[in-house]
Amino acid sequence: MLEARLRAALHEADAHQAALEEALADWQATQPVDSLAQLAADKALKRLADQIRFRLMNLQDALGLRLIPATLGMLAEPYEGWPMQDRLSRLEKLGYLDAIQWLMWWDLCNRLAHEYPDDVAGCWANLQQAVMAAGDMLVLYRRWRQLLQGRGY
What we know:
- By secondary structure, the chain is mainly alpha-helical.
- It has one domain (2-150).
- It has 6 helices and no strands.
- The model has no long low-confidence stretch (mean pLDDT 95).
């Protein structure tokens, strides 16, 4: 059952990873993007920005809600009663993630989910942070996968 949970978590994260990598590559090809007004004027660019936000938030959810518990379970860690901070700290000690960075991504995803359209400066700042965070989260996920593969998972 633990292996099935891990495989399912990896499958979901892999799908978000692939879509996010593609969206980031397309985003880099459209540079420079200078403002939300530019996004609003270009439907394809707006869809691309939405895809980056969506996939970033979904990858973070897949890792946090499914891969963290699946990884801890496969490592025989007694995580069930642990709060998220303890789970993050343990995975940080094992080399899977940086807990502070993870919490910053969580905060960013929360801000992305609750943006106010009239806060143009905030929305623009969140998008720029999302693009940077997406690249960093992909690096983390690739390393996580390598660590799991190195343990035979």
